[in-house]
Write a structure and sequence with these properties.
Number of domains: 3
CATH class of the largest domain: Alpha Beta
Strand order of the largest sheet: 2-1-3-4-5-11
Radius of gyration: 22 Å
Number of helices: 13
CATH architecture of the largest domain: 3-Layer(aba) Sandwich
Structural class: alpha/beta
Strand content: 15-25%
Oligomer: single chain
CATH topology of the largest domain: Rossmann fold
Number of strands: 12
Helix content: 40-55%
Distance between the termini: 64 Å
Length: 336
């Protein structure tokens, strides 16, 4: 079966350019348009036009697309909570919800627009999207109502919902500063995750507001993985003996780091205080119990679905919606 990727390859343009051309977007050059149309004709590629039907009648199917599902970690329970919120909203608003998983290779083979058309989807909630994913660029110009979880994407029919990651990270580090810590490190996720960029920004803002220097050497990436934080801990402690507190951009990374510290005989919080982010269920069962930033993932999923319904029924435009958070003081942070 011929896909949009085949058209893009033959025309020597991006998949996004093909999608825009076939869907009549004005910001496509005449040269690109001709190349795409010629390639589509040669390959006999003519996708159906569900979008025309959507302009006249709202269908009752909204999809939850889980991007990069193979990278998800079931241990933190985050994805399940988001799905629970989405399902609750679907029940409340009497919509059908279908769940799809899309890997990076699947996104490259078939555009977001084509995928939604073929599956007769009226609106979308996307979780797990990275800024480098093919779907990310397409969403800005999408005609289908869509809300993205934890990624700052806004277009005419695309919005996003998340915790205010910058402010939440800032308050987490300010919490450590109020406890007397002046040498604070950070375990971050990775640079192509919007939440990583935002939480690093909050970390830096808190240090700057307190008159403390920002040392990039005290920030390491662990890809939001428990095992990577675990393996990074020993070298980090050796390289930064002056650090008295660490802010981790996820609870799983905080737990991995804590586990290795305990094996190395580093007492928490007596020698090193650790602050997490998310408040997953495991946070209150660690030894010591993890201080963290609480996000309401079920509410995030519910709100994302709710906003898609509003776009469909009320013709509202895309925007970014922040939800509340809370700094939780447990046992892993002590007064310095």
């Amino acid at each position: 079966m011929v896909s949009i990727k085949d058209v893009a390859k033959l025309a020597n343009v991006s998949i996004a350019a093909v999608s825009k051309t076939l869907n009549g977007y004005p910001d496509v050059s005449e040269t690109t348009r001709q190349k795409v149309m010629q390639a589509a004709q040669e390959l006999n590629y003519f996708p159906n036009r569900l979008a025309k039907n959507l302009k006249h009648k709202v269908t009752k199917t909204i999809a939850l697309i889980i991007s990069n599902f193979e990278q998800a970690n079931g241990k933190d329970g985050v994805l399940f909570q988001i799905m629970s919120g989405v399902y609750a909203a679907a029940q409340q608003y009497r919509y059908e919800v279908v769940i799809y998983t899309r890997s990076l290779s699947e996104q490259q083979d078939k555009s977001y627009w084509q995928f939604c058309q073929e599956n007769k989807i009226a609106g979308v909630v996307i979780a797990g999207l990275r800024t480098t994913d093919p779907y990310f660029e397409e969403l800005v110009n999408s005609e289908l109502p869509c809300m993205v979880v934890d990624a700052d994407v806004v277009g005419p029919k695309t919005g996003s919902v998340s915790t205010d990651n910058v402010n939440a990270a800032k308050q987490a580090v300010e919490f450590l500063i109020r406890k007397g810590h002046r040498h604070i490190g950070m375990i971050n996720g990775h640079s192509f995750a919007a939440v990583s960029v935002q939480r690093l920004q909050g970390y830096r803002q808190a240090l700057e507001a307190a008159g403390l220097p920002y040392n990039p050497g005290r920030v390491i990436d662990a890809a939001f993985k428990e095992e990577e934080a675990y393996h990074a801990a020993e070298a980090y402690l050796q390289n930064h003996p002056e650090v008295t507190a660490v802010f981790a951009a996820s609870d799983l990374m905080a737990i991995g780091f804590m586990t290795r510290c305990r094996e190395l005989g580093v007492s928490i919080p007596e020698r090193l205080s650790i602050m997490g982010f998310d408040d997953i269920v495991l946070s209150s069962y660690t030894t010591p119990k993890l201080s963290t930033v609480r996000q309401d993932f079920e509410k995030i999923g519910y709100s994302a679905f709710e906003e898609v319904v509003k776009m469909l029924e009320n013709r509202t435009e895309g925007f970014h919606k922040f939800l509340s958070f809370e700094v939780i003081d447990r046992e892993s942070v002590k007064v310095q």
